[in-house]
Amino acid sequence: MPAPTPLANYRPYKNLPPLAGLCSLEEAARPGLLVEECVRRLKRCHYAFQRLHEILTARITAEPIYELKTGFAHHAYLCAEHVTALRTRIGEMREPPLGLEEVPHAALAMFFDEIRNTPTTEELLYGIYEVAMPALAGAIAAYLGDTNRLTDAPSVRVLRFAQLELKDCLDWGRQATAALITPAIRSRFSAWAELLGQLLAAAGGLDGTTPATDELPPRHYSAKPYVYDPIPQRDERFTDPWNQGVNAESFLYNETYPARAKALMMLYKRLREIDVPEMMARIITQTPGKPWGYYRDMSRQLWDEARHAMMGEVGFVALGVDWTKAKVTLNWSYRLNTECTPLEAHGVLYFIEQGLMPRTGKRYEFEVAQQSGLPLMATLQDFDWADEVLHSQIGRQWYVPAFRNLQEALHYGDVAWSKILSNWVTVKEKGLTQHENWWPAVYTMACQAAQEEPDPAVLAFCETYEGKRADLKEVGEALSS
Ligand SMILES: [Fe+2]
Ligand SMILES: [Fe+2]
Fold first, then answer.
1. Is 259 exposed, middle or buried (0-12, 13-18, 19+ CB in 10 A)?
2. What's the rounded mean pLDDT across residues 136-146?
3. For a pLDDT cut of 70, what percent of the chain falls above it?
4. Which pick of 61, 150, 219, 332 has the fewest CB atoms within 10 Å?
């Protein structure tokens, strides 16, 4: 029998847990990894999260399926948070200059380029959720197994958070691929799937712990340069995407209408916010060269706006309303993405969000929500308000400094917004929409579900966006102010 090691004989005082709960004595006594190897592997994880953030963000706008748009918005944000945490940790490891913008291996770059350039949603889902994220999760698990949990405790902490959220992403991805990738579709991209495997192998695995090679297979989807698609797309539940037939703000700020009906209109305004991720994804994708904090903060805001849309969805469902009957337009994100520069689009966003801060904005919406007598409505609007206060700060940090002062920054946004003011007539003449008044149908549905009689005055509401933009400025007046 081998003699018991000194470690096995060691007893902490009064049997208290040793090493502050990090791990066992035996684990801490294993040499683990040296700093240089830790940094090398952490940089690969950082690179993977950064590329995943980039790809997920770039695919939000043109992805038609609402559940995927919001899912990508969520996961892009999570990736951004882990990029931030890893950058901080790498900076603590004797590493300046950090070299965080360096590509760790050409094959790894090509691997992510291939996923970014996929022509179909199914291949994108496959590449991210069946190959890239599992490889990243594997790299993190291997790191946690190899490093010394005492010496490298700060990295272990960062990676455990990443592991937790990657697992959530992978669970979502498994359900999404099961729903969308049929065996027939899968068989169509089997050669490309093989290429992804070859590229990971050439990179020495995602973490570079197996032998790598400089010999790369030929590029497939990434043989052509990547072109970002800024045109917003929606799935078939969004039946009238150019409709500007119901002026939600006119209704909301009219004192004669009851709070309960206004709550319904606010749910429409929340759901309509799905156009904000569509335009913010474009700003983020087409604004290169900013400090990392810009991308992290903008991705947080993008994700909040996706949540606001989902709040609208939940509110409608809870009130027994089929939200597809409310015509959710993409006019705003479409025009910003095709007629304005990224900075102009950011200006419009900032200008609108500044308008939400006074008494007539988010506080008013919260008060109406409380008056509506619907507790869920108050919760939704309260957090919507808190988020918008944060967004106003994000704008002050990353948009306003491009100008000499706040007033100039606001004016720039106001002018840009006026530029895309009203295409009410144009879209009607083109036959894209008849601006159908969908409000009576939606209001009636809510009344039926609540077993209440519709209020004739509410039912008769029929103001459109023909002559007004959403901050109730008259068309024409906006430019001169
Ligand atoms: Fe919002
Ligand atoms: Fe916002």
1. middle
2. 98
3. 96
4. 219
267 Cα–ligand 1 center, Å: 12
CA of 304 to the centre of ligand 1 (A): 7
Indicate whether 243 belongs to any domain: no
Task: Inform me whether the pLDDT recorded for 101 exceeds 50.
Answer: yes
Residue 440 CA to ligand 2 centre (angstroms)? 28
Does 305 lie in the same domain as 204? no
Q: Could you tell me the distance, in angstroms and rounded to a whole number, from the CA of residue 307 to the centre of ligand 1?
A: 8
Q: How far is the CA of 308 from the centre of ligand 1 (A)?
A: 5
Q: Which helix (H) or strand (E) holds 162?
A: helix 153-180
Spatial CA neighbour of 466 closest among 273, 241, 239, 247? 247
Answer whether residue 272 shows pLDDT above 80: yes
Buried b (16+ CB within 10 A) or exposed e, 57-67: bbbbbbbebbe
Look up the domain containing 123 and give its range.
29-219
Give CA separation, 362 vs 133, 252, 354, 400, in Å.
38, 12, 10, 21
Picking from 173, 202, 219, the residue at the C-terminal end of a domain is 219
Residue 49 lies in a domain: yes
| CA 348 – ligand 2 centroid, Å | 12
Taking the CA of 310 as reference, the closest ligand is 1
Examine the domain organization and report whether 209 and 254 are in the same domain. Answer: no
Model confidence pLDDT, tens digit, residues 341-388: 999 999 999 999 888 777 678 999 999 999 999 999 999 999 999 999
What is the whole-number distance in angstroms between the Cα of residue 137 and the centre of ligand 1?
32
Query: Would you say 127 and 72 are in contact if contact means Cβ atoms under 8 Å apart?
Result: no
Question: What is the whole-number distance in angstroms between the Cα of residue 442 and the centre of ligand 1?
Answer: 22
Read off the tokens for 117: 């350039």
Asked if pLDDT for residue 10 goes beyond 70, the answer is: yes
Q: Tell me, in angstroms, the distance from the centre of ligand 2 to residue 3's CA.
A: 66
Determine, yes or no, domain membership for 224. Answer: no
Q: Does the residue 263 lie in any domain?
A: yes
| Residues 268, 173 share a domain | no
pLDDT at 2: 64
Sign of the torsion angle spanned by Cα atoms 11, 15, 18, 21: positive
Identify the residue with better confidence: 320 or 473.
Answer: 320
In the structure, ligand 2 is a single-atom ion and the residues with CB under 5 Å from it are 388, 391
Question: Could you tell me the pTM of the whole model?
Answer: 0.95
**303 and 380 both lie in a single domain:** yes
Number of domain units in the chain: 2
Q: How far is the CA of 170 from the centre of ligand 2 (A)?
A: 28
pLDDT tier, 476 (very low <50, low <70, confident <90, very high otherwise): very low
Ligand that lies nearest to the alpha carbon of residue 301, given by its number in the listed order: 2
